[in-house]
Here is the input.
Amino acid sequence: MPFCRVGDLQIHYHVQGKGPPLVLIMGLAGDLSWWERLVPELEDRFTVVTFDNRGAGLTDKPDEKYTIPLFARDTIGLLEVLGIGRAHIFGVSMGGMIAQELAVRYPDRIDRLVLGCTHSGGSGFVLPSAEAVQNMTLTRGKSLEQIARQIVSILFSPRFQKEEPEYVNALTLRYAKNPPSRKALSNQFWAALGHDCYERLPFITAPTLILTGDADVLVPPENSLCLADRIPGSRVVFLPEAGHAFFIEAAKETARCLIEHLSWEGSS
Here is the structure.
């Protein structure tokens, strides 16, 4: 289990594969294990860097105010420790917010950008369904397993839950066995809630691909259209019948899209 020190923060990370560096940034409360289906599809082409954000997994969980710019600085700090000057970036959900911030604040460190199941914040944010909000927030009096099942149910599409019940159940039990720290989760949640990159999106210069599942109820696909409208030259791919965690549900298709975008030899 590799760890490194970035400022006062100890970060848990993995580096796998060979080729140009590709950094994967996970969303709210997720840890690097959530990339378990995608990394094997990429490691023959890229040096894949995964890590736990502050407040998640095995990375430190300081009790302080978290912000998306702070997460972005953590990511740049990790790249510096690993000796990576420029990298491709793929962020999902809250990780996509961090990726936007990286692209705006550190354009010289970003090669190509992929944003997954995320939103711009501000006036471009399309709210999730009422059911999704309830399943994320109404947890009082419930067991850890009940909470985990409630949350997982909105991360995956009905199709995937029907087709792969064993995987969904295993992931649910894993989440229930190692739940995120309540305080750290709250700190991450408020950071995500404060995200607003809407007015700055036109300043993103990295070639950008936007991915989303068309059955995402947590971050509705309309958010991806808003991102595409604001980021010059970007394009959107909708993954059919995939939910919020499309990178798990449709790992092979996600990898195909990433490889195509990141390997394109046109002008950057």
Observations:
- The radius of gyration is 17 Å.
